[in-house]
Design a protein that fits this description.
278 residues, alpha/beta, Rossmann fold, GMP Synthetase, Chain A, domain 3, 2 domains, 4-stranded parallel sheet, 3-stranded mixed sheet, globular
């Protein structure tokens, strides 16, 4: 048995022992793979739940619904109201903790309503030790992370997903729109709509991965370096569109796209306070 097969068997064993699960289902690479394996193991004892709010890109909702149908899993959409919580909306370094705390509490309510014993998320081994305050909330509320527990890395999940024929195997990483704002800057529905519309426009140009970071009057665009040419070729249209959305200045980040670039401003102490130890 090779390393992948051993991890897969470990994953299936963990899921089987859970008995029945609610899966936090964003429609991303990790949660889609987790749902597929969970359905293989538990059948109709799996319920995929997608949480919708102003922070969730609107186009992802329909994609999650379509994926759930393709996976043959029961699916439910719930609504969260993290923006009504000032501890979240004020955007502290542990912002995600407050979001996930509300999410996981609601997922437990759904689990109890459906007679399911466990709540699981799609965190993987690469998330360990990173600035992931949401994982702290999960640990506190008894949410399991089967992919992380069985030792799956993001790359292994992508390879396994490709082998299973899942359309998400090469899907760009997702992150809620709140991650576009510098810590300490208040998050509002209007600002979320502004960056969401800007990103949809840029994706419409054929860019695979994009973040529009909000710096007040400045939109800082992150795209993979190999796709920067698309932005340059459409510079006039990009500038006009983002200015029409309310930005005054439009900038392209020459370091390119990287996950969690807003975390670069955090001190090591701030990161450690909200990370899961390795």
């Amino acid at each position: 048995m090779n390393g992948y097969e051993a991890k897969l068997e470990r994953l299936k064993g963990i899921i089987k022992d859970l008995g029945g699960v609610v899966v936090a289902f964003s429609g991303g690479v990790d949660s889609t793979f987790l749902v597929r394996v969970a359905v293989d193991v538990l059948g109709d004892r799996v319920l995929a739940v997608t949480a919708v709010s102003e922070t969730y890109p609107v186009e992802e909702v329909e994609e999650a619904k379509e994926l759930a149908r393709a996976l043959g899993v029961r699916h439910q959409v719930i609504y969260t109201e993290e923006l009504s919580n000032l501890e979240f909306a004020s955007n502290p370094p542990n912002r995600c903790y407050f979001c996930k705390k509300e999410l996981f509490a609601k997922l437990w309510e759904v689990a109890k309503e459906n007679g399911l014993e466990s709540v699981v998320d799609g965190a993987n081994l690469d998330d360990t030790g990173e600035h992931r305050p949401g994982l702290v909330a999960g640990r506190e509320l008894g949410v399991r992370s089967p992919l992380r527990e069985s030792g799956f890395t993001k790359e292994e999940i992508r390879k396994a997903s490709r082998g299973l024929g899942l359309p998400t195997w090469n899907k760009p990483s997702l992150a809620c729109l709140s991650s576009r704002f510098p810590y300490g800057q208040r998050i509002t529905p209007e600002k979320l709509q502004q960056v969401g519309r800007a990103e949809r426009f840029l994706k419409g140009l054929g860019i695979s991965q994009v973040r529009v970071r909000y710096h007040g009057q400045v939109a800082r665009i992150e795209v993979p370096r190999q796709e920067m040419g698309v932005v340059f070729e459409n510079a006039e249209k990009v500038s006009a569109k983002l200015k029409a959305l309310g930005f005054i200045y439009v900038a392209l980040d020459l370091d390119g796209y990287r996950s969690g670039s807003m975390d670069e401003a955090l001190t090591e102490d701030e990161k450690c306070l909200t990370s899961i130890p390795g």
